[in-house]
Design a protein that fits this description.
The protein is of the alpha+beta class. It is built from 22 helices and 20 strands. Strands 1, 5, 6, 9, 10, 13, 16, 17, 18 and 19 form a ten-stranded mixed beta sheet that branches. Strands 2-3-4 form a three-stranded antiparallel beta sheet. The chain binds adenosine-5'-triphosphate (ATP). InterPro entries: Kinesin-like_fam, Kinesin_motor_CS, Kinesin_motor_dom, Kinesin_motor_dom_sf, P-loop_NTPase.
């Protein structure tokens, strides 16, 4: 392949000068490495670290000896193919030779990054190198004896997580591939056109599946799954050549609690992202023998690697103002890793084979330049507001629970205290009540005792009084009896005296009566003698007189006698009566005496009985009283015993009361102590509550701020959501447009294929003509050489050489254009642009009519940028959604919104009878009119192709013209001027 072709795969060397010259300079100057080396004073962690791994040469087809590693393990010297003179030497952070194991590579290049990632840094390991150099082997191998960097890094992460008991970790894994500028999720292969997004956290793949992994087994499973979905293919250089760039992303979220302002703990989160990038290998189509799709893949790979090289160059150049990250999805994805917020290591894979010396040199140059890229990694630590919010709420709830518990405890204590106090009060009341009862009982007992005593005393007094009364009565009775006795005695004495008096009187009466009777008898005798004398006289007289007197005396006697007899009888009666009376009186007196005696006796008996009775009664009463008194005494003793018992119980109760008082005092003391504790607890609680309230206020303030932030974020998110919805809508519409456009594009491609085949035929014809011209020119050159040898001074040889080179390049381009598959739109576009440029210049030249400078320059690029040409050739590609080429630049800002493409497509189908008109100007149809216009334009398409063919014909005509004429034209210098203005750039 020509130098220009090779330059296409160079990484950034094309930034100055032509690729050929740049490549030549890079390969030939030994000072490149030294001039690009980072300053010695640099800290290694401030730049990309580069490690070279040299794969052992394969047994067949490779000649070892192209590389020699210096003894210091950092330098390497490259020997060009079939040469013994060192071509260039490089110095890296470490060179790992063919004998280096995977473990050596891991410890040198990956372990520090993994440790940084675990500390919240972003880390990247990129494997770069030509195809088959061992990138995938180094990164993804899961062979037991050669475990690659990805499994090792994952194992190290989980090993670290297992050992770290302080932090909490969450690990997510994503695996994507970048295939033909499309990002596909290897864990969700159906997601095949993911988009790269950017936010304040950096660049990320939007919508990529992030699988949470908790152990190495899950990681390996996902790795295996991703590897299965990754695109690989057989090439001449590698049986399992990776046809895509693969990126494994391990996101390690590390949470830790740190003390905040107050006692609160703030959750801080470190988010470390580890990117393990297995870049597809650069390859030369010639060596890899890739054709068709493989060749397209290789071009896409080389293109993205070229952009990567340019980005590395720009990052390494302190004066560079622009880094073309957006030129490829690979560089856009690795933007943070290429000098942004990441610690990056580059593993350059190379092989010690002379056959691949050029590629190895190119890889080493790439690595050498990467060493100059500075990085600015910072720890991605932030407050985990979401978790913090949840934890603060939980803490508040816990605090509330604690407060509630404390309150409940306090309430319980209060209740206990109150219960104790109530119990104490109750006990006190009980004790007081019992005391009162006891006192009352005591008083009652004492009163009872007093009453009983009083009663007893009263009873005794009454008894005494009764006794006294009885005694008094007895005495009175006795006195009365005595008085009566005395009275009776006196009466008896009186009676006796009276009797005696009466006796005396009776005796006197008797004596008087006897004296009266004697005197009376004497008188009566005398009166009888005087009456006898007078009786005798009177006897005489008396006898007379007697007799008369006798008679009268007799009469008188008789009368006297009668009178006397009467008197005597009366006296006698009287006497009898007196005697009777006396006897009666005596009887009476006796009777009275007896009566009195009897009465006395009776009285005495009565009184003695009564006294006895009274005495007995008194004694009985006394005994009863004594018994009563004894009973009373016994009762009193019992009462006293009861009182004593009561006193004892009162004493016991007093003791109990004292004990209770002591207990009460103790309880009061405990209560006081508890109250003290309670107050202390209240104080603490108030303090804690105040602190909690303060914290709560702070948290609430923080929460408010957070809420505001969240609200702002929510607003943003809503905005994003709206824009996402709008984007989704537009994506959907674009998808529909894209579908329609694809359909149109398919028709267009079919048409283009037909046209290209036709052009191919024409091109081959032109090519044959050009070849004939080239052979003719070679003949001319040989003639000129002969002339030069013949010392014919002719300065146009270089021009002829240039002319030949340029022509050769044109021919190769034409050949490449015609043999490239029709699917390779870029190549078609490139050819198209070249042809269009050539045609334009040709027409200009024809217009000028002066046979102006034509030839090789007509294949050089015009000033139109590549993407404009792409757009011009295939504007439908521009309208593809989510594509690097999707920017609809051809639509004016005020263009009306496009109608639904399917409708347009159907309308167009109807209009053109089911066959859509092909055409090159199929810009995104915004209306049916535009679609129809495009269709017409597509029908007019051959006009461009006509100019293309015209350009070829013109080229053929020009190159088939007279060699000397062309030589003269070329020698006029116009070509150099044109070439200077339009340097080909690839
Ligand atoms: N250090 C090494 N030791 C032994 N074999 C290796 C080493 N490096 C690579 N190989 C072998 O070389 C071959 C190619 O390796 P690998 O597929 O990793 O290359 P690559 O750089 O990924 O290629 P591509 O870019 O095409 O994917 C594999 O068979 C691999 O086993």
């Amino acid at each position: 392949m020509s130098a220009a072709k090779e330059a296409r795969y160079s990484l950034g060397g094309a930034r100055s000068g032509s690729p050929t010259k740049a490549a030549g300079r890079r390969l030939s100057t030994a000072d490149t490495a030294s001039t690009r080396r980072p300053p010695s004073g640099d800290r290694p962690d401030e730049r990309v670290k580069v490690f070279l791994r040299v794969r052992p040469p394969k047994a067949e087809g490779e000649t070892p000896g192209a590389l020699r590693i210096k003894p210091d393990g950092k330098g390497v010297v490259v020997y060009r193919e079939h040469a013994t003179i060192p071509s260039s030497d490089f110095e890296f952070d470490r060179v790992l030779g063919p004998s280096a194991s995977q473990s050596d590579v891991y410890h040198a290049a990956v372990k520090p990054i993994v440790e940084d990632v675990l500390n919240g840094y972003n880390g990247t390991l990129m494997a770069y190198g030509q195809t088959g150099a061992g990138k995938t082997y180094s990164l993804s191998s899961i062979a037991a004896d050669a475990i690659g960097m990805i499994p090792r890094a994952a194992a190290e992460i989980f090993s670290h997580i297992e050992q770290d008991k302080i932090h909490e970790y969450t690990v997510y894994m994503s695996y994507v591939q970048l295939y033909m500028e499309l990002i596909q999720d290897l864990l969700r292969p159906e997601s095949e056109n993911l988009q790269i997004r950017e936010n304040e956290g950096g660049v990320f793949v939007g919508g990529v599946h992030q699988q949470e992994v908790s152990n190495i087994t899950q990681c390996l499973h996902l790795l295996h799954l991703g590897d299965r979905n990754r695109t690989t293919a057989f090439t001449a250089l590698n049986a399992h050549s990776s046809r895509s760039h693969a990126v494994v992303m391990l996101t390690v979220i590390k949470r830790r609690s740190v003390a905040g302002n107050g006692d609160a703990e703030i959750q801080r989160v470190k988010v470390g992202k580890l990117f393990l990038v297995d870049l597809a290998g650069s390859e030369r189509l010639k060596k890899s023998k890739s054709t068709g799709l493989r060749a397209s893949e290789a071009k896409s790979i080389n293109l993205s690697l070229t952009t990567l090289g340019m980005c590395i160059n720009a990052r390494a150049d302190p004066n560079a103002t622009h880094v073309p990250f957006r030129d490829s999805k690979l560089t856009r994805l690795l933007q943070d890793s290429l000098g942004g917020n990441a610690k990056t290591s580059l593993l350059v894979a190379a092989c010690d084979a002379g056959e691949h010396c050029e590629e190895t040199l190119q890889s080493l140059s790439f690595g050498q330049r990467a060493m100059c890229v500075r990085t600015q990694a910072v720890v991605n630590e932030r407050v985990d507001y979401k978790t913090l919010h949840a934890e603060m709420i939980a803490a508040l709830e816990t605090q509330d629970k604690k407060s509630s518990l404390l309150e409940a405890t306090l309430l319980e204590k209060d209740a206990q205290l109150e219960a104790v106090q109530t119990r104490l009060q109750q006990e006190q009341a009980d004790a007081a009540r019992r005391l009162e009862e006891l006192q009352r009982e005591r008083q009652a007992l004492e009163a009872e005792r007093a009453r009983q005593l009083a009663e007893q005393q009263a009873a005794l007094a009454a008894e005494q009084a009764h006794k006294q009364q009885l005694l008094a009565e007895l005495e009175a009775s006795w006195a009365a009896a005595q008085g009566l006795t005395e009275k009776h005695e006196a009466q008896r004495q009186e009676l006796l005296a009276e009797v005696a008096t009466q006796r005396q009187q009776l005796a006197a009466a008797h004596a008087a009566a006897a004296e009266a009777a004697q005197r009376h008898a004497q008188e009566l005798e005398e009166q009888r003698r005087a009456a006898a004398a007078e009786a005798a006289a009177a006897a005489a007289e008396a006898a007379a007189a007697r007799a008369a007197a006798q008679a009268a005396a007799a009469e008188q006697l008789s009368t006297a006698k009668e009178e006397l007899g009467a008197q005597l009888a009366a006296a006698q009666e009287e006497l009898a009566r007196t005697q009777q009376l006396l006897v009666g009186s005596r009887a009476e007196s006796r009777m009275l005496g007896e009566h009195h005696e009897q009465q006395l006796k009776d009285i005495e008996a009565d009184w003695s009985g009564k006294v006895t009775e009274a005495q007995a009664a008194g004694e009985c009463q006394l005994a009863a009283a004594q018994a009563t008194i004894a009973a009373r005494d016994q009762t009193i003793a019992q009462l006293q015993a009861a009182v004593g018992k009561r006193d004892d119980s009162i004493n016991q109760l007093s003791h109990m009361v004292e004990a209770l008082e002591a207990g009460k005092a103790e309880l009061a003391r405990q209560v006081a102590a508890l109250q003290g504790e309670l107050q202390a607890a209240h104080h603490q609680r108030r303090h804690a509550e105040a602190a909690a309230a303060q914290r709560q206020r702070e948290w609430e303030a923080a929460l408010d701020e957070e809420r505001q932030l969240v609200a702002a974020l929510q607003t943003q998110v809503e905005g994003y959501e709206r824009s996402r919805m709008a984007l989704a809508k537009s994506f959907f519409e674009n998808k529909m447009r894209s579908d329609a456009a694809k359909m149109i594009q398919r028709h267009w491609r079919q048409y283009r294929l037909r046209r290209i085949r036709q052009q191919q035929t024409e091109g081959y014809q032109a090519l044959n003509s050009a070849k004939a011209t080239i052979s003719s020119l070679a003949q001319q050159q040989r003639d000129l050489e002969q002339r030069r040898r013949a010392n014919l001074a002719f300065s146009g040889q270089t021009l002829v050489g240039d002319n030949l080179n340029v022509l050769q390049e044109a021919v190769e381009s034409i050949v490449a254009a015609f043999i490239l598959p029709a699917r390779d739109l870029k190549s078609l576009q490139s050819i198209k642009s070249k042809m269009a440029g050539g045609a334009a210049r040709q027409s200009m030249a024809l217009h000028a009519g002066s046979g102006g400078p034509l030839g090789p320059s007509m294949l050089s690029r015009t000033s139109t940028p590549n993407h404009d040409l792409i757009k011009a050739i295939n504007p439908l590609a521009e309208s593809l959604p989510n594509s690097a080429r999707s920017t609809p630049r051809d639509l004016g800002a005020d263009a009306p919104p496009p109608a639904a493409p399917l409708q347009q497509f159907h309308a167009a189908q109807q209009q053109y009878g089911g066959q859509l008109p092909p055409g090159p100007q199929l810009s995104r149809p915004s209306s049916y009119g535009q679609l129809a216009q495009q269709a017409q334009q597509a029908q007019r398409g051959p006009s461009r192709e006509g100019s293309f063919r015209g350009g070829l014909a013109g080229l053929a005509n020009k190159v088939m013209g007279s060699p000397m004429d062309r030589l003269r034209r070329l020698s006029s210098g116009h070509y150099q001027q044109q070439a200077g203005q339009h340097q080909p750039r690839y």
